[in-house]
Design brief:
The protein is built from 17 helices and 18 strands. The chain is 36% helix and 15% strand. The longest helix is centred in the last third of the chain and has 31 residues. A hairpin with a 2-residue loop joins strand 15 and strand 16. The relative contact order is 0.11. It has one domain: Alpha/Beta hydrolase fold, catalytic domain (Rossmann fold), CATH 3.40.50.1820.
Amino acid sequence: MNWVCAASLLFASAVVVCSSPIWYESLYRGGAYTSDAVFPGEQYWTSEDGEWRAFAYTGIRYASAKRFEPSTLNRNHDYLRNTSQPKRGFVCPQIANEAPYSSGVPLPLNEDCLYLDIYIPPVFKNHQNLGWSKWPVLMWIHGGQFKMGHKDAYSAGNLAMSSGNIVVVPNYRLGPFGFLSTGDHVASGNWALYDLKLAVKWVHNNIQGFGGEKTKLTLAGERAGAALVSMLLLDDDVRGLVHGAVTFSGNMFSPWAVQSDPAAVTKRLAIDVGCSNDTKLLTACLKRLTTVELLDSAARVERQMTDLLGNSLWAPVVDGLQIQFLPSWLLDGPTWVLKGGYVTGYSTNDAAWPLLKKIPRVFGHGTIDQEWIYATFIPSLLEFVQRHCDKPSNQQHMIQTVYDKYGFLSANSPAQLTEKILRLTNDVFFVIPAIKESSMYAKQSSVSTGNQLFVISSDDSYETRSISPNPETAHLFGLVQGSTLSSNRSIEAVSRELRRLVGHIVRYGTGFGTQFNQKLGNQIILGNGHEWQSTRSNMDELLKFWEPLHKAGCA
């Protein structure tokens, strides 16, 4: 029995197919060799007898970039000898107190932030008595509304230990540094997508030195990170390097995932700091600002321009390069083949966190009523999802249609109104995008059982459900910086099942249910029984209701 077969019995339930040998004595001692450098590891776990050790290789600079320019792959690792540099590298600039799972410790912010960490499962000491098989690789892309978050927010060692897979977590540029666009060729935007494509390429080129199998690379992410995974797969080269993907609560069809008017945002930023409106001049002007000056200005502009639902000012854009057209066109447009599986899904509680942050009155009993929902909330929601098109002429009819569909008139209390707002928002922000992407990949993938829709459900009312930004992430990693999961059977069961799903995709490139079919409405659901169950529901009806509303005003 080789190491990975043995380790799978100790740390994961899946069976691992053993393959060709590879040198790994250095990995037991905390050293990884690539063609460019020797990377020192930091031990994050050891068995009581010292026979097994697990190392994390942190602060690896995979790329470098100038402001508002595409990043370039890094091959110079002289920084490893710089003792004054943070061991884990720098964190991409952001408003530090907004960062998810902030521990209160100041973040080492710097525009030189394109670093990644690699967490390896435990290695056995007596390797000469065991064979060797390379580990599958999971690259996790963090969320944070495209403007905050970082790789070190996750205790990725927990996931590497429990799954028996390598886990890679990269940083990417955020806010204006990652997404500013002038709407033309001067500063086209999507700088974060350039970063992440290079992270995928770097891992593919170097992961064997860490014991990884480069042909078994899976991309995963949550919320904004999930949308970025979805957009990365638009690239032929990226699809050629990965064998599967899984996204939690977001994808490119999410109404918040693409900025509709990036030039207007950039011009408002230019006005705030006194730059010219000419795109060449304002880009040069913004490049001259200090990091803090640009962050402060972006925060002021966000306060001025954010609407009721918190439209993300800094987000991917249709630039004709990284994203060639609106994602909605893909449903009836070009086809491609993904050699592996794509699994996407949502939680029935997903809408609670953004509503709590953006419209807290939704959860304050007595502060919402029928009039506010009809005159303010539903019109704002429709305007949000239709913002890529002209304002439709029959807006009032649409408001009434949505109001009736979700049964607001039948609500007998503020709590019932809140539940209906949650359901409406969840459908628009998370459910419908998940159905669309599942349908698209089910039609196009070469893997007949690889593409599925999953739902994490709760039968409880919103009043008894916990409201947190990334509950699935906390379950998957077990511990996220500043947030621990208390140990009880229910939480352990959900964590186990989420890891089982992700582990299956990472190892085999597919889900473990039947191929998704929108008309059948087949899906796998993780409910209060805390085990994945196959079920069906009529999803075609929901799409048929919302699709005309989404496209209203579009030519």
